[in-house]
Specification:
The chain is α/β, with parallel strands linked by helices. The chain is built from 17 helices and 15 strands. It has two domains: 181 residues, no CATH class; 344 residues, 4-Layer Sandwich (Purple Acid Phosphatase, chain A, domain 2), CATH 3.60.21. Strands 1-12-13-11-10-9-8-7 form an eight-stranded mixed β-sheet.
């Protein structure tokens, strides 16, 4: 008799966070019911409320200080005391002015990243999803032209809404303050928030028009119609793997697919076996793994991934490069999408530093850390060495006396760069495109920091003859194909992907962007910039691609790739039970 309940086949608990089983609306409803309201309120105050307050109070504090200085300066000639007061005010400005300005600046860009840019992307993608498809059918025009129209329409809509918000908040704003305002904190609070609304309303009203115009003017994504001809020179073979999603249990399922997807790590093992066979048949120059090595970034999952990696030949492992995906660092709780981390809790930093330490173990001597001016003073191993003790202590305990030593390590570690072997060789830039989210429900969002972009473009400019693979986890632009739901467009987006694409445009001839994330097998271009999206050999159809590159006339050529099919492992079954549940003798 077959068992009534077989835990090795999973149950409804394994589907708790699955987007393949539940709709986005269902998961959102679950989040609203289960979320901790005190933690949500505190997170909102720290991430949104406090930056709004600091930004809004900045002009009031600045004008109050200027008023004090001007009065003191006029009285300075009437005695020693006013002169001393003026000197003290100037000293305070010299010591605290720069930190205060940086605090206001950080508040502005924090709100820009948390609210402004996501709102613009939501509006743009919603317009493209609901209006763009209908316009394409009605006008019988190609999707690229409709994408340009909807980008401008979304920009105009956002500009009008932001302008209206600024206009409504203007009567409640105040721009000249005095120290007596501290006696009425509620009035000061209201004026500060009104100031923030006016500032951001004006910024978005103007900025959205610029963003929309830039999106419309840039090359729209199109599927690549032909590969470059075979060159008569060196060809680089790069195996592109992504979204391997190692789980920590033999019978474990993935967050995204639940019981409808693969179980255990048999597909991961089969992928590495196929990789080894492909390398044995014709040696690979590189193996690029663009994120989501694990399913939730837990220690047990990293252990399983490393165990699978150990089966490969050491010479092949020496040619592998890795970068983090959202599942490696941003999943707070794999079984509860309603759980969130407080901004000051150690959970997120622990996942980041765990990933950083493991990336260092995997590729520390093969990559260098790019400095602000494209300086390459140290390999990743050398760069991390002064912080090794603090990092290990934090990973073990979640705290440490030298916590400041590790607080910025994650952000400063990227981009990691594999330098070209020759001046005209092929280099690789590894980016961290994961948004700074604290919520399981929004773990898939991406955001590329401006500092990473500056360092990336500096690296490319510093090597004018080299060709570059720019690797990240998230997709830069939405694929030029219909989507089934809006959640596919906005729930996994790289918020500032269009902006980053525009920054790469001057070097587009020498650059190919490679990413994963959506498990979509696609090769296309935006203008001259070529983009390669990798499928997931674990979560999707069992195959991956060996991309082939050449160099001709100062241009990185994208050649016809080689497909590597993976033998589908048998679906895991309980001992003594067949695939359909019948007894096996």
């Amino acid at each position: 008799m077959p068992p009534l309940i077989d835990p090795r086949r999973g149950d409804i608990e394994d589907d708790a966070s699955s987007t393949k089983v539940w709709s986005l609306a269902s998961l959102a409803g679950w989040v609203l019911v289960e979320i901790s309201l005190p933690k949500l309120l505190l997170s909102w105050l720290l991430l949104v409320g406090l930056p709004c307050l600091l930004l809004g109070v900045a002009p009031l504090a600045a004008t109050a200080w200027l008023s004090t200085v001007s009065r003191t300066a006029l009285d300075a000639f009437s005695g020693v005391a006013p002169f001393v007061a003026l000197a003290a005010a100037l000293i305070v400005a010299g010591v605290g002015g720069r930190p205060a300005f940086r605090l206001a600046e950080r508040s502005f860009w924090s709100l820009n990243a948390l609210a402004v840019q996501p709102s613009f992307v939501l509006c743009r993608e919603a317009m493209r999803h609901f209006v763009g498809r209908r316009l394409s059918l009605w006008l019988r025009r190609d999707g690229a032209r409709v994408g340009q129209v909807t980008a401008i329409a979304a920009a105009v809509l956002m500009s009008c809404l932001a302008g209206a918000a600024a206009w409504l908040a203007w009567p409640h704003s105040r721009w000249i303050g005095s120290w007596s305002d501290l006696a009425s904190p509620l009035t000061l609070l209201g004026a500060s928030f009104a100031n923030s609304v006016v500032l951001f309303g004006a910024y978005v009203a103007c900025g959205s028009l610029a963003w929309g115009g830039a999106d419309a003017a840039m090359g729209q994504p199109v599927t690549l119609d032909a590969y470059d001809p075979e060159p008569g020179c060196k060809v680089w073979r790069v195996a592109h793997l992504s979204d391997l999603h190692a789980v920590g249990e033999r019978f474990g399922f993935r967050i995204e697919s639940g019981r409808s997807g693969p179980q255990g790590n048999a597909r991961l093992t089969a992928t590495f076996e196929a990789l080894a066979r492909a390398d044995a048949a014709e040696p690979l120059d590189l193996v690029l793994v663009t994120g989501d090595m694990t399913d939730a970034g837990r220690s047990s999952e990293w252990a399983e991934f490393l165990e699978a990696l150990e089966t490969l030949d050491p010479a092949l492992r020496e040619r592998m490069l890795f970068l983090p995906g959202n599942h490696d660092v941003n999943v707070v709780d794999r079984s509860n999408p309603a759980r969130l981390d407080l901004p000051f809790s150690p959970g997120k930093r622990l996942r980041e530093l765990r990933a950083l330490g493991l990336l260092a173990d995997l590729q520390a001597e093969r990559v260098v850390v790019a400095g602000p001016k494209a300086t390459f003073d140290a390999t990743l191993a050398e760069w991390l060495a002064p912080h090794a003790q603090a990092l290990a202590s934090f990973v073990r305990t979640g705290r440490g006396k030298r916590g400041r030593d590790v607080s910025t390590l994650w952000d400063e570690a990227f981009p990691m760069v594999r330098l070209p072997a020759t001046p005209d060789g092929l280099g690789v830039i590894l980016l961290n495109s994961n948004a700074d989210t604290h919520f399981s429900f929004t773990n898939a969002l991406g955001m590329l920091p401006a500092e990473q972009e500056r360092r990336t473009t500096a690296v490319i400019r510093a090597h004018p003859e080299a060709s570059w693979l720019v690797a990240l986890h998230h997709h830069l632009v939405e694929y030029p194909r219909p989507t089934r739901s809006l959640s596919e467009r906005i729930g996994t987006a790289l918020i500032n992907g269009s902006w980053f694409l525009r920054q790469l445009k001057p070097a587009a001839r020498r650059v190919v962007v490679m990413h994963g994330h959506r498990h979509v097998d696609w090769t296309g271009r935006c203008g001259e910039l070529r983009i390669v999206s990798a499928p997931s050999p674990v979560m999707g159809r069992p195959h991956f691609w060996i991309q082939r590159f050449g160099a001709s006339g100062g241009r990185l050529t994208l050649l016809k790739p080689q497909r590597v099919d993976i033998a589908e492992p048998p679906r895991m079954a309980a001992p003594g039970v067949g695939a359909a549940g019948e007894s096996v003798t």
